[in-house]
């Protein structure tokens, strides 16, 4: 059975946001003189931990992982791995990356600007994704109401 894609309207903007993030990071690092400091080590350590959570999330989703919002009518909602604790562990990783990768290089403007832009994008995306999951399963909201979207919200 074919999946149903939700969120087509914002997907290209999300891709543009992520591409722009890397361009901005490259430009800011190129035109400043970053150094590798103790705070760089802390930021890098946080990013490495986040990547382990990403691997856990993606392996938990298995063949259901996709960058688009595609809901399969008869597929079960994944509730294993980090999804036992959070609704959106991979988005938590993206939040962490966008906030902390620039801090490795003291790219503060990139960190601030894209953290704010990403917060706006995820607000849109998560609403669409949860609505699609609830529509397809009929009980997504009830099953996940006790789980936080991220570790901090």
Automatic annotation (TrEMBL):
Claim: Transferase is one of the keywords in the record: yes
The subcellular localization recorded is:
Membrane
InterPro entries per the UniProt record, alphabetical: ICMT_MeTrfase (IPR007269), Metal_cation-efflux_comp (IPR052527)
Q: What is this protein called?
A: Isoprenylcysteine carboxyl methyltransferase
Q: Which residues cross the membrane?
A: 12-29, 41-59, 91-117
Biological processes per GO annotation: methylation
- Entry GO MF terms: protein C-terminal S-isoprenylcysteine carboxyl O-methyltransferase activity
Q: Which GO terms describe its cellular component?
A: membrane
In its keyword annotation, does this UniProt entry include Hydrolase?
no
Membrane topology reported for the UniProt record: Multi-pass membrane protein
